[in-house]
Structures are given as structure tokens and as C-alpha cells.
UniProtKB/TrEMBL annotation:
Residues 266-320 form the Torsin-1A C-terminal domain. This is Torsin. The gene is TOR2A. It is found in: Endoplasmic reticulum lumen. Keywords: ATP-binding, Endoplasmic reticulum, Glycoprotein, Nucleotide-binding, Signal. The lineage of its organism: Eukaryota, Metazoa, Chordata, Craniata, Vertebrata.
Amino acid sequence: MAAATRGCLPLGSLLRLLGLLSAATASWDLASLRCNLGSFCECDFRPDLPGLECDLAQHLAGQHLAKALVVKSLKAFVHDPSPTKPLVLSLHGWTGTGKSYVSSLLAHYLFQGGLRSPHVHHFSPIIHFPHPSNIDRYKKDLKNWVQGNLTACGRSLFLFDEMDKLPPGLMEVLRPFLGPSWVVYGTNYRKAIFIFISNTGGEQINQVALEAWRSRRDREEISLQELEPAVSRAVLDNPHHGFWHSGIMEERLLDAVVPFLPLQRHHVRHCVLNELAQLGLEPRDEVVQAVLDSTTYFPEDEQLFSSNGCKTVASRIAFFL
């Protein structure tokens, strides 16, 4: 991976350069050459925000706050030709509530190659950072990886999964990339997108949702103002979270804390119907009911929220077909 790229060329110079290419490189297309020569290119960044909004509306059950925050943040960022900083979103909530699903949709609707795009980078603690004793090497590798890929293409998406399982201190190396730093190696880092995913804050979100239900408030009345302080405090107080002592939250480098609410029985039903449709199957009442009845719910008295959200829906459907 090159440490730096050359500056952008005017189109005329670019065309003259194309005429000088050897037969071995004549198959390169103009877009690829632009991408390699400078950061003005968008690589395979092809945002389809209406498509994303439609997909979220149809398939993301029970998450009015997440839908609104993600769409609003992306619209403002994508439509800004000169953003002041990268877009940084932190997704929080109980398992199976849609965090990973949303991140995969972002890749699909922002980049032509989706999750397979060379400009979409997915990090998992178990795969990429399994040994805390190697933290110094991980820091160096992560910094070089992010810097190298942003040098190759400023329009890059970085997904960090299971933030509550990362080695403490690792995320410190990302802090310079998340703020309004302007140019490094001639590359505009402000057009990158960083998505962080964790379960931290899920218990606090669940408690707010439970209290709202007990007070007979509509779920859609729950506001970000009710949730954000509790989620932020849970992150800052968690020594196992990747943001621990990183300065990322203290310096307000997050553009949005995105809470995912716990799912109720009718939300799980929505997931079951979606999964059956994806399989090309007609909804059968006995299968839907069997999946719902086999799902565990909490709290013990109310049996209100699914313990695993929609995470096990696909496997349960396969069992009952």
C-alpha cells in the first residue's frame, strides 16, 4: 500500500497520460485511473439515499430513532461537497435490534460493490485484534491501514463491530482521523464515514423503553434526548469499550449516538414475515406462530421484549419449516 499519492491532474493532462499508457495498461478505465491519481475521485461511491430510506422503512422494525438519525445524518453529509469532518456514527443497543443490519445497508446503498467494495472496511475484534498483548502492533497496523486506504480513496467506509470487545486504547489512533483535520498526503479525510457498533448502553435503552411502556406512552414518543445521556455515560464508564480513554467522546467527535430500542413481539413477527419473503415463501400462520412462541422475552413478569431481538429468526424459521 503506497504511503502517498500524487496530486490531482486536470482532465486534459489526464487524457494525454492515457494516450501514453502501454498496451498492458490500456484496459484501465478512466474512473479507475482517476481514483489512483487523486482524491477528487469518488471511487465506487454511488449513494442511493432514497433506496436506503425505503429499505429502512420496509425492513427495519421498531427503530424510529435509528431510521431518522441515520437518514438525516447521511443526507446532510452526502449532499455537502466540502464536509467539515468525517461522518462518525456510533450505534448502540441490545443484540438483534438491527445495528449490523443497518451497517450492511449503508455499505449496500453507498458503494457500488456493497460490503465487497474495496473501499468498505469491516473490523472485528475476534478476527483483527484477538490478543490484547499485541496492542502496540494493532495500533500501528490500524493507523497505517486507515491512512493508506484514505490516501487511496477519501470516500471510504470503516465499520468497527463489537466495540465493547476491543483492546483498551486501540481507538486512540483513530482520533486524528475523526476530527476536522484537513489534508494528509494530499488527501481530504473529511469525506470518510466511520461506523462504530456496540451493545453498550443497551440496558439503559431497554430501561427507558420499559418505563415508557409502563407509563402507557407510545414507543414513538421516546426521544433521543431521553436516551443519549444515559448511553454516553454507559460508554464512558465502561473500561472494556473501545472509546475508553480515547478522547473520541470527550472531544465530541461523534456526529450522532444512534440508539436501537428493544423489540416487542409484533416487531419479531415483522422480522419473521420479512425473512419468509426473502426465502420466497408464503407466510404460514403456524410457522410464524411457532417462531414467536419459541422466542424468549423479558422482563420475567411482563414478557415484553425479545431477548435476542430478531437475531435468531432465520434459524428458527428453518427449524419449523
